[in-house]
Write a structure and sequence with these properties.
Strand content: 25-35%
Low-confidence stretches: 1-14, 480-486
Distance between the termini: 28 Å
Mean pLDDT: 89
Shape: globular
Bound molecules: iron/sulfur cluster
Largest sheet: 7 strands, antiparallel
């Protein structure tokens, strides 16, 4: 098998924020944990497509395989057969901290006084500069440029100072600031952890049959695929430690306040994943209904931008009575392409991924619903493609508010100067996209549709109100990295 190095290209991302990572863990002695982890990661592939990895523990022995590429490219039967043991952790990655290189693939593995520790991380620390200095000061050997390795090294450092697994990990987590949902494997057991704000999701499941076999996953779709039953979320500031004694819970951070990333609900997480007792599909339908109530417009049909805009488009259609139609066909039969398109192809627009149906669109007034606009480049091409296909009017409706601030918690939303809504009014964006009308969902409407306490979400990319303060150094570094193209 020759791993294929991923090269980000315009048709891969469709100008969308990129999710950072998916994490998975399983404690099931006697089961083929490597294969179960493989399928868990397979379900979480949407959370990161650059690299994948699985580490298993058979007693004190660790088996590890990780590489660049999709889960299906990185693993095959014979590789999985060599990943022996009763505990496995896995990871799918999209790089936010640390560039896209094999050495940065996860799980990160380091050695400690009590044995090897493997860490899979979803999120982004905002105090990496400080943590890095601390680690270097203590002669830690930093091999990668990821914050995930720093967390693993911080754990090892605490353990080496004489603490046990539990206290060592808690001590290390207190040194981390930002977003971190972690799955940690040791020879003794499996650990699941969320930062005090629970910015990234992490759920616990249980395998049917013998008791004591637990699963941890970024989303419930990672449980469903292996037949595990959803038990509950790991709470913000909670640590669950799964060993042969069962599952023990510790609230490691006395100060915790739930601030789940609202973008997980709007776009990142799979629509069949369940958060707060309902599928995200249902939440996204409500976003569409709310959007219709706030910004109706006369039209002949409602389209959704495949796939993530479709639930909101159906909600919009239900609320207005304007029929929902499929006017854009997505090429679903190929995986991610790693070949850069030619300049001429770029100019043709987005047709590698989406193709409009001329006979459906010709002469029609169209409402096109999408979940977000980041730079606006793809939206513009999409509008042009609809007009080229004969649409008489194109009205764009967005099921989230304008993205005006970058994310520092593990989502790649670009730097502020590249976010179209950070520098342009809705009228100016409308003009740039060449739509007949443009409307975003209100911030209040987005939160209202959650049916939850509106304080329990991070919505900083719409407001700039960051739940964990962002050091100036970090803001600057994001800008620098973007400018040098990392
Ligand atoms: S800043 Fe935006 S994308 Fe980042 S965690 Fe908050 S809501 Fe999510």
């Amino acid at each position: 098998m020759i791993p294929i190095p991923p090269i980000p290209s315009y048709e891969n991302s469709l100008d969308k924020p990129e999710e950072a990572c998916g994490v998975f863990g399983i404690y099931a002695p006697g089961e083929d944990v490597a294969k179960l982890a493989y399928f868990g990661l397979y379900a979480l592939q949407h959370r990161g497509q650059e690299s994948a990895g699985i580490a298993t523990f058979a007693g004190t022995q660790l088996h590890l395989h990780k590489d660049m590429g999709l889960v299906s490219q990185v693993f095959n039967e014979s590789i999985l057969d060599e990943l022996l043991g009763g505990i496995a952790i896995g990871h799918t990655r999209y790089s936010t901290t640390g560039s896209s290189r094999k050495v940065n693939a996860q799980p990160a593995v380091v050695e400690s006084r009590l044995g090897l520790v493997a860490v899979s991380h979803n999120g982004n620390l905002v105090n990496t500069w400080q943590l890095r200095q601390e680690l270097l000061h203590n002669n830690c050997n930093l091999v990668t440029t990821t914050d995930s390795e720093m967390i693993a090294l911080a754990i090892a450092q605490e353990i080496n100072a004489g603490l046990d697994w539990l206290d060592g990990c808690v001590q290390a987590f207190h040194r981390c600031q930002g977003a971190f949902s972690l799955v940690i494997g040791t020879s003794n057991g499996l650990m699941g952890v969320r930062d005090p704000h629970g910015i990234r999701p992490l759920v616990i499941g249980i395998l049917p049959g013998n008791p004591g076999r637990y699963v941890l996953a970024s989303e419930t779709c990672g449980l469903d695929i292996i037949g595990a039953e959803y038990l509950r979320d790991v709470e913000p500031g909670e640590l669950v430690w799964i060993t042969e004694a069962g599952l023990a819970s510790y609230h490691w951070s006395p100060q915790h306040q739930r601030k789940l990333c609202i973008f997980e609900m709007i776009y990142f997480a799979r629509p069949d994943s369940v958060m707060h007792n309902e599928s995200l599909y249902s939440y996204r339908l409500r976003l569409g209904r709310q959007l219709a109530a706030e910004s109706p417009v006369a039209a002949d049909m409602v389209l959704g931008v495949p796939d993530s805009g479709i639930p909101a488009a159906i909600g919009f259609s239900e609320a207005t009575g304007i029929r929902y139609a499929e006017g854009l066909i997505k090429n679903r039969y190929v995986g991610r392409t790693f070949i850069q398109p030619t300049q001429a192809m770029r100019e043709l627009g987005i047709r590698v991924k989406l193709n409009p149906l001329k006979d459906v669109l010709s002469g029609k007034r169209v409402i096109i619903v999408d979940d977000s606009i980041v730079r606006g480049t793809t939206s513009r091409k999409l509008v042009k493609a609809l007009r080229d296909a004969g649409a008489a009017e194109v009205h764009m409706r967005i099921s989230s508010p304008p993205v005006t601030h970058p994310c520092f918690y593990g989502i790649d939303t670009d730097t502020q100067d590249q976010l179209i809504a950070a520098t342009k009014s809705v009228a100016e964006i409308s003009q740039q996209l060449e739509v007949d009308s443009l409307a975003y969902l209100s911030w209040e409407g987005m939160l209202e549709a959650t049916r939850e306490d509106t304080n329990s979400f991070c919505s900083a990319c719409f407001t700039g109100d960051y739940p964990v303060a962002i050091p100036d150094q970090v803001k600057r570094s994001k800008l620098i990295l973007e400018k040098v193209g990392v």
